[in-house]
Amino acid sequence: MATDSVIDFKVWMSQVQVQMEIALDRYLPASTHIPERLHDAMRYSVLDGGKRVRPLLAFAAGALVDADPARLEAAGAALEMIHAYSLVHDDMPAMDNDVLRRGKPTVHVAFGEATALLAGDALQTAAFDVLSATTLTDSPSDQLKMINILARASGSLGMCGGQGIDLYSVGQELTLPELEMMHILKTGALIRAAVLLGSYCGTPLSDEARNALDHYAKCVGLAFQVVDDILDCEADSATLGKTAGKDAANNKPTYVALLGMKGAKEKAEELKQAAFDALAPFGEKAKLLHALAGYIVDRKY
Amino acid sequence: MATDSVIDFKVWMSQVQVQMEIALDRYLPASTHIPERLHDAMRYSVLDGGKRVRPLLAFAAGALVDADPARLEAAGAALEMIHAYSLVHDDMPAMDNDVLRRGKPTVHVAFGEATALLAGDALQTAAFDVLSATTLTDSPSDQLKMINILARASGSLGMCGGQGIDLYSVGQELTLPELEMMHILKTGALIRAAVLLGSYCGTPLSDEARNALDHYAKCVGLAFQVVDDILDCEADSATLGKTAGKDAANNKPTYVALLGMKGAKEKAEELKQAAFDALAPFGEKAKLLHALAGYIVDRKY
Predict the structure, then answer these.
(1) A-chain residues within 8 Å CB-CB of B132?
(2) Looking at the complex, does the CB of residue A250 fall below 8 Å from at least one CB of chain B?
(3) For B117, which residue in chain A has the nearest alpha carbon?
(4) Which superfamily does B3-298 belong to?
(5) From CA B119, how far away is CA A155, in angstroms rounded?
(6) Which residues make Cβ contacts (< 8 Å) with residue B97, sequence separation at least 6?
(7) How far is residue A221 from each of residues A90, A106, A239, A285, measured CA to CA in Å?
């Protein structure tokens, strides 16, 4: 990218991040609502943190179809609530037992386990509340499809299933296809949903275009996880904002363990290139999706 | 009720219970799906147990509007999945730490805490999957409303919020209005949603009729909890299929603690009568809702 485009992209990212912060603040119940502690915990886990990768993907896909920003905000908020709920529950002692997230104590450390459990539950519900209360697309039937896309992506055959496979694979030797299957569900499914939801918020796409977009999303989803594994090995906790090196310490299968650091980095590059290729038919309209794939693979935290 | 009607009602209940068992079996992913342990746990918590009160209410409300049974099954399955997820999480050590439910070990006892956490999460998602994948009513806009009704009823301003208030009230002195507020959210909201969802599966109701139905649902929801508190004091664990006397032992506020046993029983009767009164405009078509209110208040477990 030329320097100007890099600056434009960074400005766009910051704008979407600010816009999402305001939208999430509006969509989440106020801390003054009873029970206050539950609403505090929900807001603590969602607001003021996170790279907002999934909303960014939704907005970038929305740019392909001239989507209404208010619709993208709602879709982005639902995606971010699902993502946040999965982190809150994943960090709990019964799962990863993590104490640090986005540089802050995790929800169960700050609010106790019972509140963390309920806050995660209520955040998931809030996502479906937003998606069913707001007009997201011209056709209510398409909106039902969007809700179903999010449900499939985050349920036991999607994200939750991936977390299950991850859980049951601790200390097991996974093959590369098994590891890939796990991440396609655990991280990839929601990233795919983010791109698809964004693309539903504007002018309808042809099936061919939607398939190309879906291929982009699959590559980005997998690349995201490969890079996560690389960063978990290389970065320190302060840069990462969460406990580094945990996966290796927990004997969890990672791309780095399976492919070596060099192999993992090559894999990330290949996936980025495949994502770029998938965007070719969209031309200039896909420049945000293009830049985002680069950002996701080249990030340092 | 005359003896014949009692028999008819019991036959109808058994039929709906069997039908729901088959529907839930079909809607839940098979145990052979990866991750098998997660799907086993989801099926364990939902199948082969429970009175199916919420689906029964949806079917009874559906009878008012000549609803298609296939639609009622889908609505009933979603309601039961939400109910089951809330029980799985509520039983966990971080919350009520209960070991017995419906006469079987609770999910975290049988499958471990991590799986219980994920199974509850995935059951909630599965409910929204069912509601968005199946045609439930003639108008897709109305179906979006139905999804929103379930989300509002089960989120932090509904069921989850009620559980939060319950959690934060342990050892506190609650007034009767505070106790009522807690139960209206914790149990009442989902019972109301059950009646409303059923009523959306057929011929549209007038606003006036829907308000009357909603008043019925509020009374039944509250009566349900008052009777739960009475049974928790009076029944033994074997009859109840869960640990009896836990609320009192945990110093949780109950209707019996607040009103005395006699007062609590009078309250349940009053609510039953108010529910009956709300059904008056519907005549003979409401006979199942009528019988169900009687069943809920007069049950022994």
Answers:
(1) 144-145, 147-148, 151
(2) no
(3) A89
(4) Farnesyl Diphosphate Synthase (1.10.600.10)
(5) 9
(6) B91
(7) 19, 24, 22, 21
Q: Which residue in chain A has the smallest CA separation from B154?
A: A125
B121, B136, B170: best to mutate for the A interface, most A CBs within 10 A: B121
Q: At what angle do helices A53-64 and A287-298 cross, to 10 degrees?
A: 160
A residues 282-301 near B, CB within 8 Å?
none
Q: Is A101 helix (H, G, I), strand (E, B) or coil?
A: strand
A201-222 pLDDT, tens digit per residue, is 999 999 999 999 999 999 999 9
With a threshold of 0.90, tell me whether the complex ipTM lies above it: yes
Burial of B30 (0-12, 13-18, 19+ CB in 10 A): exposed
Tokens 């929601």 correspond to A190
Report yes or no: A178 at the B interface, CB cutoff 8 Å.
no
From A22-36, A249-263, B138-152, the region with the lowest mean pLDDT: A249-263
Whether residue A176 lies within 8 A of chain B, CB to CB, comes out as no
The first and second tokens of residue B224, run together, are: 């349900």
Provide the token pair at B22: 């088959």
Please give the structure tokens belonging to residue B220: 């039944």
B18 compared with B252, residue with greater pLDDT: B18
pLDDT of residue A176: 85
Within 8 A by CB and 6+ apart from A66, the residues are A202, A203
pLDDT at A246 (0 to 100): 63
Contact A132 B147 (CB under 8 A): yes
- Amino acid B242: pLDDT: 59
Going by C-alpha positions, the residue among A111, A87, A114 that lies closest to residue A242 is A87
| CA A176 – CA A249 distance, rounded (Å) | 20
**A125: contact with B, CB 8 A cutoff:** yes
- Tell me, rounded to whole angstroms, the distance of Cα B60 from its chain centroid: 14
**Least Cα separation, residue A167 to chain B (angstroms):** 8
Mean pLDDT of A232-239: 70
Element (H, E) at B105: strand B104-105
| pLDDT tens profile A30-78 | 999 999 999 999 999 999 778 999 999 999 999 999 999 999 999 999 9
Which stretches within A112-254 are classed as H helix? 113-133, 140-154, 159-168, 176-183, 189-200, 207-234, 237-240, 246-249
Instruction: Provide the shortest C-alpha distance from residue B169 to chain A (in Å).
Output: 10
Residues 6+ apart with CB under 8 A from A85: A45, A119, A120, A121, A123, A124, A127, B121
CA of A31, closest CA in chain B: separation in Å?
A: 11
Kind of pairing between the strands at B104-105 and B100-101: antiparallel
Structure-block tokens of residue A163: 């977390």
- Residue numbers of A between 59 and 98 with CB closer than 8 Å to B: 85-86, 89, 92, 94-95
Strand pairing class (A100-101; B104-105):
unpaired
With an 8 Å Cβ cutoff, are A118 and B163 in contact? yes
* Per-residue pLDDT tens digits for A264-300: 999 999 999 999 999 999 999 999 999 999 999 998 8
Tokens for A264? 């993992």
B117, B122, B155: residue with CB nearest A156: B122
